Amino acid sequence: MHAVHQLHQFRKSLSTTTYKARGQRVIRCPLCQLAKQFCICAMGAKEGEVSSNAGFLLLMYDTEVLKPSNTGKLIADLVPDTYAFLWSRTTKNDELQAVLDDEKWQPFVVFPQEYAQENRPVETQHINCSTGKRPLFIMLDGSWREAKKMFRKSPYLDKFPLVSFDPKLFSGSQLPRSKSSESKLAESASLKGEVLPIIEQTPVGENSRYTVRKTELAHQFSTAEVAARVLAMSGEHDNAHLLDLWFDVFNYQYQKSVCQRNKGNPKALENYQKFINKKRD
Ligand SMILES: [Zn+2]
Q1: Which of 107, 141, 168 is the last residue of a domain?
Q2: Ion ligand 1: residues, CB < 5 A
Q3: What is the C-alpha to C-alpha distance for residues 19 and 154, in angstroms, rounded to an integer?
Q4: Residue 31 CA, ligand 1 centroid: distance in Å
């Protein structure tokens, strides 16, 4: 069980009523939250298969972790150092604070640049960390409205630089590859230390592929898609691509399980399997 699974259990234990998700009569896998017959857990990366120089800290808005459509858990499926906490404006969370204070991390808040206060440093190209530190990406996980609220009302995050990307510049994992030594370092830290050619591009354009939820803005990506962009900005292109493919798998299977017209990528499973098998060779 990873951090999001644990948080899911914890949040569920606080609820007096069952969270009413769409398709609530579906019998779900307790981990991936997909209908049992579409469960993707067996396909997931095995322990030790993915390594990353980056960490993620998911701040999840209230019932977000209970929503089967949440994609924050997909990050935790792949990136070993993923933390997950319930967001609170007022309650002090010592565990959360300990992660933020940990010397090994350089925290960044992942959020659109246009919301940055004046003078706040914003990384928009490549992530540069202070010497010896690893990037910790703080993701505000909720609806867009909730994410904006968390951003405004978390003064303890104000001292950290932002990471933003222009969705128009990026298409899938086809991100500009930096020649800098930092990104080489980060690349070598990705999957088993090998840099593999990208064999299948996922169909990401300017818009999110996230067809599970209606997004308020055309450029609003799901949490997992944003995390993939950020990994790529850190030079971890293989990990970024793997997360993109894993997201596609989830997106496709999720839609099967709620009987919507499936707008997911029908080649999602095939693409993902091809890529991960190649890594396993
Ligand atoms: Zn499952």
Answers
A1: 168
A2: 29, 31-32, 39, 41
A3: 26
A4: 5
Q: Could you tell me how far CA 176 lies from the centroid of its own chain?
A: 20
Ligand 1 mean position, distance from CA 128 (Å): 36
- Angle at the Cα of 3 from the Cα atoms of 253 and 109, rounded to 5 degrees: 95
Q: Are residues 203 and 101 in the same domain?
A: no
Total of domains in the chain = 2
Range of the domain at 251: 174-280
pLDDT digits (tens, 9 = 90+) for 10-58: 999 988 776 666 656 778 999 999 999 999 999 999 989 999 999 999 9
d(CA 82, CA 76) in angstroms, rounded, equals: 5
- Do residues 67 and 143 share a domain? yes
pTM: 0.81
From 80, 69, 78, 87, select the one nearest 24 (Cα to Cα): 69
Query: Do 25 and 59 sit in the same domain of this protein?
Result: yes
Q: Is the dihedral of CA 154, 157, 161, 166 positive or negative?
A: negative
Q: Pick from 168, 187, 212: which residue ends a domain?
A: 168
